[in-house]
Amino acid sequence: MKNIKLILCAVGISISLSAYSLEQLSDSSLSRIQGQSGLTVEQSQLINIGNLSYTDDGNSVNVEGLRFSSQTDANATASRTYTLDVLEDGSLKIKTDIKPTQMHVDGIRINNSAASFGDLTLNYEAITDFTIRGMSTGGLEGNFTTGISNAELIWKTNGYAMSFDNIGYNASIDNFTLEYDVTDNTKGFLRTGLALGMDNFNFSFSTGALSLGGVSLGELAGNLALSANAQIFAGGRLGDEGLTFHSQVNILADPANEVRFTDEGNSLLMGDFSGALNLTNLTLDVESDHLAIGFDQMDGSFNAGRILIGDSLKPVGSIELDFLLNDDSVNNRYNRLQLYPGIRQPDFDAMPSEIKSYAQSFYTGLSPTSEGLSMATQWNLANAELSYIDDNRRVVISGIESYGSANTTIDVRDKKIAIGVSDLVGSYSIDGLRVGSKTAPIQGGAELLLSLEVFQAMDFDIDGFTEITAGGVSGGGIRIDGDYFFNNANIGLSVDENGDGIWATGVNYDIHLRDITFDVESDGLKINRGEQWSTMDIANLRWGSKTSGRSLGRVKLERFEQNSSLAVIPGGAGQVCVGATASTEAACGGAGGRWEDRGEQGMTVSLKAAFANAGLTTDGSATARNRLTWENNRDETSPGSGEYVNGTGTQIIFDNYSTNDGLGTTDSNDYGLQANLNIDVFETKVLKKSTGADANGVVGNIGDELIYTTSARDSYGYVASPDTAQKTLRPLGFAVQGNVSFKELNIDAVQLKHPNVATPQTVFYGVVMQNLDLTTNLTATPIQ
Amino acid sequence: MIKIIIIFMTLIYLPYSIALEPLAEEEMQQVQGQGGVYLSGDITINDTGGPLNNTADTSNPAIWQKNCTTTSTDARCGARLAVNAGDGSNSGWLVLDNIRGRFSFEGLTLTTRAIDSGFDGDGATFNNDVLEIGLPNTVSYGDVSYTLANSNQARPTDAGFQQTDIFTVNINGDVSLRGNLLLFPTGNP
Predict the structure, then answer these.
(1) ipTM of the assembly?
(2) pTM of the predicted structure, to 2 decimals
């Protein structure tokens, strides 16, 4: 819908502006205008507009150097043809054939700011067909089709460009309506606005390549069918002028709906989706130095019935998301976005020392006049429910809440996109899991998400600086280099509904990533981690409250990895024999095992962690090692404060652990520590552990199986010997077939350090573990 | 990752098992709280050898390249752990060698709970959270075996490597493990 509005605006602007700069037509040109059943206008246009301003409460957005011209010569005309007909029903039909044209903007500023958003170029050709007629009730209605082809969108900042090449776009609206009769009183007075309705709005888009410096990150394409209504009113959120929108969008259930990212012929696809999106009071205002965008509420749902990673024969499963973002004035949490022209650099002196030098280096060479985009963002996610469905078995991550704010800068550099995020301050939490259905009782067990490195709750304050380069390991793909610092974060490892549990508090987490590449390959998504080093320093590992719970002490984990990797592969474990080694159901049962067919869907995560021996990082900027330190018996900062001074206690240190290929630390490190996890959602055998009533008053004997009594899984009982039907109502959980292996894991020393001595004393002068292959078949079920 | 969680929990537990205060059976029944995780399944070590036994991987040292099956008895088919508890290069290594086997269990639970009552009145005084590990009623051991040994070098591939095996353990059968382990911080952090 936004796209249509943009197109209508662009066409309208181009027509209206060209009217002021029409070139004289010669007699021969005029002779080509013919009309038996309508009018044909052939137009050659070269439009140069020095400055086009939109003013809101005295503040202006200035579009500078707007030009429509030939694509090959900025001083030459581009041609287009309008064919106008009046149809038998009184409709006006306008067909437009736009020959290759270039639209260019030198810069967009706010109140003539020193910096601009950068310059934009759009090369395109298009054919549109537009029919419009009056409605008996007033207003206008009609239909619309457009086809844009051979298009290219280029965004350039400070002389460097990123582009969307070879764009194709086709859209049609079966019926649209435009009426000036809708009212709104959300600002405390009644106002009338435009109502726009669209039935069956279908569009498809494709980009041949998303390029940086001529190198492709990959291709993006999609199809979408939706119906939408929007209401537009004069007056924004701030001052008297501005714009306000409400909209209601239904994504129609259409198997052709999909979004596809393709890298070297291999696709990451999310398809067969449907849903809804409702926006209330989306406002747009121009302020003295920024564009202010905000909304009171956005709610909706999004269902993707088909997710493919590379291999089209192995779907990962499906997801469903229900969400509500709304303003919370009581807690001062809002949904707002402020867009500033140029790069607004953070206050380096206010940054933690661990990230300050990286931030300064990131912004080197940029000045207050540098082009780019800066954003100040606030969000308040009041609730979200995320379902993952694997072979018709559903697990719901329930009660997801988050709020926070961040400052972000984006600019294009030499073959890079640079994204700087500072003061990303906020919090998130997950209430728990529901299994079987969306309405099943909420349970604990969100700890299971730790297997996906998702923590149950976190309070965070993050500064992070990322450079994205085009090109993965092979051909297209994405490469990332970045430096990140979590300052004084609290991480919930296992938290109940009151926020109590096990917390890592006062966490300073310093992460450095180099040469991290993302590629979509024929069998999955591959992430190669060229080099990374990090230090996670947990001030207190607390039991109970995150502020006053008893502390286990300080835990410090330093990591240094080179050439590690991660692959996400579609498909889970398939058929598994738990408790024995066998390849058939009969043999498994005969060997005392339990046969489980976990279906075709699911996900496999394949991890290789190559722990490097202590040494300099490749860029020579740091000395890194793998080391685990646990410290306690520290001095309290002040009596009763519950905070402690690091380095004043006794430490046990596992120093310089690393992997190698079997001959010691001087050997190669190609194998590393490998972990392969086949993850499915599957029925789990849960046995009662004692005779009598459980915490919910349900009675059973020791050894009885917990079996749900309804398919909604909202009530249960205990059964001594469940039949086949009852076995399908076993509790659902994550079934993980895992394998961990390494050729050698070496620990240089295990040491103890007393605060009164400078050098740790060695307990073990070496620990060498070799040739481990550990396989697990575990099912993990949330329990009440 | 679940293994990592378990390992993590175990790491937490091991140092603190020394500080556990004994709880009576009836006191354990007073533990209250929310949700958690129920784990069941099996853990198998080197069922068909380890990565150094892969004969197709020519980078593996020859001494490790073995055709390992579930019934093979070659000492190199198992995992190996060597610890130098002496004074470095002048001392030998304590070795657990040829580690293999399967552990199966039903119903290991992990939960965090608040204890604020019971325990003959001690619960109200305690009034804190604990990590509760609910032991599975039965753990089955299938051909779990290892060899305790001494060696002069850490690795079988090291120059002049010599090893003396002291004894070998092989375990089959079931072990009953009932009750709960409650883990909580105590002392000065």
Answers:
(1) 0.84
(2) 0.87
